[in-house]
Amino acid sequence: MKWTIDPVHSSVEFAVRHMSISLVRGRFNRMSGTIETADDGRLAGVDASIDASSIDTAESRRDVHLLSPDFLDAANYPTLTFRSTAIDALGDGRFRVKGDFTIRGETHPAVFEVVTASPVIDLWGNRRSGAHAVGAIARKDWGLAWNQAMESGGVLVGDEVQFTLDIEAVLPESTHAT
Question: Which domains does the chain have, with CATH numbers?
Answer without folding.
Answer: 2-175 (2.40.128.110)
